[in-house]
Design a protein that fits this description.
Blueprint: E1 2-6, E2 14-16, E3 23-26, H1 27-35, H2 38-50, H3 55-73, H4 78-92, E4 99-102, E5 105-108, H5 116-122, H6 130-140, E6 145-149, H7 156-165, E7 171-175, H8 177-181, H9 183-186, E8 206-208, E9 220-223, E10 230-231, E11 269-270, H10 272-279, E12 284-287, H11 296-302, E13 304-315, E14 318-321, E15 326-328, H12 335-344, E16 348-355, H13 362-374, E17 380-386, E18 389-390, E19 404-406, E20 417-421, H14 431-442, H15 454-457, E21 493-496, E22 500-507, E23 513-521, E24 526-530, H16 534-539, E25 545-546, H17 547-550, H18 558-568, E26 572-575
Helix pairs in contact: 1-6, 2-3, 3-4, 6-7, 10-11, 11-12, 13-14
């Protein structure tokens, strides 16, 4: 029996097509199904409700109760469900667990997955998915060959655990993009000393599938960023001799097609036929290089439904991509026309804004934000992320940025990024604050993705009513006749934010006994303590309600101050008179 074992933690919206001749043991998906079941959520919440009240247990209870509320609300918002699941994973991975789970990643307690010593140390500690690892080990000891598939670093702690329990009589293999990219270091780790790294392994084909379902022929294929896909149109026919690109063999067991694949990539620069060969002709969504937008017909022919691209700046008549190259917009540029052709063909273009690129200061970022709000270029900007230079790439890949290259820290033997220096770049110490500010302001009108999971990109959230700009600040002496300055616009109707839940706890978040009420926003990660009388009023605001009706018992001007506070804390969503 040959087992293909998929360790946690990975994208819970994806499931693989099982390769022929192998039994798939998807430990990650088994874990998600167990802990995200309604009855499991109820048990976890009740255990904390009835147990000792500490700061940790109350924060975990807050997340679990808020997640239950969002899931039971059943609004049909796929993003709300994903945010709820992310809250559950976070609540279940507190101490003494050695890992902290997020919807789209994993962090080590007191360490990093970029350092193999930290991974080995943490792998022996409890983890939320230990139960599934133990069940998988029962299958492993009966196998003839076990192949651990590593898509990313988040699976490393679980992979170490599984490798340690694999008997010496069972052949052990490591495969997948992360195993291929870090083979040299992984082979030196004690848990993987005897593991082989087969080279004749075809990549897994992932599909976007609901957690309760299995992949089928109709399921959308997902192409992750590490495949390096950049779709090109084939060269036009010529009367003279030309190179037959489609006959060129690629290295390894990967598709044939246009040259241009960097080490570790699967598709690289490809034609529509290459993509269809990999997807089996199924429709697909995924990350593509920015130049793919210049080949709209090829994208459509390849079966693309959602194309995800990264950009760094948007200025007067141009946009700059992740590699530092500028692309013209407007009447003289072709990009906007190509985007329109994609929309007409039913292909949505989703973008990610990467902030912190070389020689991009805060003034340029402010200009980018202004233009994104004024004239949206993409169908949706799903998120704002810190710019990172990949450790597996070279300065040549970033020649559009003209940056000075630095090596990762010496002890980061599993590094995935490299340091760089360039004048005019946002300082690292400032970057978190800048990211938070830009993300909050950008997504006032259309909310951000709950995480970088495949299922999130397929659902573009509805637009929100724009918030009127506050009146200009004018000094009192400059006002005609000494009149008071104009009042800021106030909402006429409000409702509870869709990602908020009103939660009662048996103690405060500091662990002080006594009933306490909070409003938890699973999108922002913030929680607001509220008085007991206010909790039922907020809970009732499921639909937009006139302010005077929603808070009828609150006198003015306290009502206006209360609403301003709740709107400012992202507890209430406002609507204004037009």
């Amino acid at each position: 029996m040959k087992l293909l074992v998929l360790p946690p933690h990975r994208d819970l919206t994806l499931a693989p097509d099982g390769p022929e001749g192998w039994e798939v043991v998807d430990v990650a998906r088994d874990f998600f199904r167990r802990v995200l079941a309604p009855e499991a959520l109820a048990r976890e919440a009740e255990a904390r409700e009835d147990g000792p009240a500490t700061a940790q247990t109350m924060r975990e209870l807050l997340l679990l109760r808020a997640a239950q509320a969002l899931l039971e609300r059943g609004s049909g918002d796929a993003h709300a469900s994903l945010r709820a699941w992310g809250a559950v994973l976070k609540a279940l991975s507190g101490p003494p667990s050695g890992v902290r789970l997020e919807l789209d990643g994993l962090e080590l307690e007191g360490g990093t997955t970029e350092r193999s010593a930290d991974v080995l140390r943490v792998a022996g500690r409890p983890a939320p998915y230990t139960e599934e690892l133990a069940l998988a080990s029962e299958r492993i000891v009966q196998a003839e060959r076990v192949r651990l598939w590593l898509e990313g670093a988040s699976q490393l702690p679980a992979a170490v655990w599984l490798a340690r329990v694999c008997p010496a009589t069972v052949a052990l293999e490591l495969a997948g993009p992360f195993a291929t990219a870090h083979r040299k270091v992984l082979s030196r780790m004690s848990a993987f000393h005897r593991a082989s790294f087969p080279e004749d392994v075809s990549p897994l084909r992932w599909r976007v599938v609901p957690l309760e379902a299995e992949p089928g022929p109709e399921s959308l294929v997902w192409l992750p960023a590490w495949m390096g896909l950049e779709v090109h149109a084939p060269p036009p026919p010529s009367e003279g001799p030309q190179m037959d690109f489609m006959s060129l063999e690629r290295e390894g067991p990967y598709p044939r097609g246009a040259p241009g694949r960097r080490p570790g990539q699967i598709l690289g620069e490809a034609f529509a036929a290459d993509v269809r060969a990999f997807t089996g002709g199924a429709p697909w969504a995924g990350h593509v290089g920015f130049m793919s937008l210049y080949a709209p017909e090829a994208l459509v022919e390849s079966g693309c439904r959602v194309a995800i691209v990264g950009f760094c700046t948007l200025g007067e008549g141009h946009v700059r991509d992740l590699d530092g190259w500028g692309h013209s917009l407007g009447p003289r540029g072709a990009l906007d026309a190509h985007l329109q052709r994609l929309r007409e063909a039913g292909v949505r273009v989703v973008a990610e804004w990467w902030v912190g690129a070389p020689r991009v200061d805060e003034a340029v970022l402010e200009e980018t934000l202004r233009r994104l709000e004024a004239e949206p270029l993409f169908d949706w900007v799903a998120g704002v992320h810190p710019f990172q230079a990949g450790a597996g790439r070279t300065p040549r890949d970033y020649r559009g940025w003209y940056l000075d290259w630095g090596d990762p820290p010496a002890d980061h033997d599993l590094a995935r990024t490299r340091r760089f220096e360039a004048p005019g770049t946002v300082p690292p110490a400032r970057l978190p604050e800048v990211l938070e500010s830009l993300d909050g302001r950008l997504h006032r009108h259309r909310l951000s993705s709950p995480g970088r999971v495949a299922g999130a990109y397929l659902h573009i959230p509805p637009s929100r009513e724009p918030v009127p700009a506050p009146p200009p600040q004018v000094e009192a002496p400059e006002m005609p006749g000494g009149a008071p300055p104009p009042e800021p616009p106030r909402p006429s109707r409000v409702r509870l934010e869709q990602d908020c839940a009103v939660v009662r706890l048996p103690a405060s978040l500091e662990g002080v006994p006594g009933e306490a009420w909070y409003v938890a926003n699973l999108r922002t990660g913030r929680s607001l303590a509220v008085e007991a009388w206010l909790a039922p009023l907020l809970e009732a605001l499921r639909g937009f309600t006139p302010v005077e009706e929603a808070f009828a018992g609150v006198p003015e001007p306290r009502r206006a101050s209360l609403v301003d506070t709740l709107v400012g804390e992202s507890t209430l969503e406002p609507r204004f008179k037009t």
